[in-house]
Known about the structure:
Layout: H1 10-25, E1 29-36, E2 42-48, E3 54-59, E4 62-67, H2 81-98
Antiparallel strand pairs: 1-2, 2-3, 3-4
Helix pairs in contact: 1-2
Amino acid sequence: MEPLSPELHPAILEAFGRPLELLAAHGFRVRQSHFDARHFGNFAVDFTGRCPNFRVIRDRSEYRIEAEPELKPPLFVYRDPIELVGAILLWAGDVESANGEGAP
């Protein structure tokens, strides 16, 4: 498997490494990321891939997603990043279905 991204801060890899691997296995790639050590180790990771671009945000120990089109139903805050990945994959499948695309 190709490297996830040389720009990822080690703390992002430590906290979110397995979810990053799962998303990469489903065709998503990291576009950019931001880590803020001064604010509880919060981070944001922007993705591109099978559907419109989206961002995963960790605020303290909670994860959420920002995406267009708006998520319906909206994704709630998750404490378990693997659950968040499941919600992202469901959303991506819905977007692909709406656009008449198939999964890779």
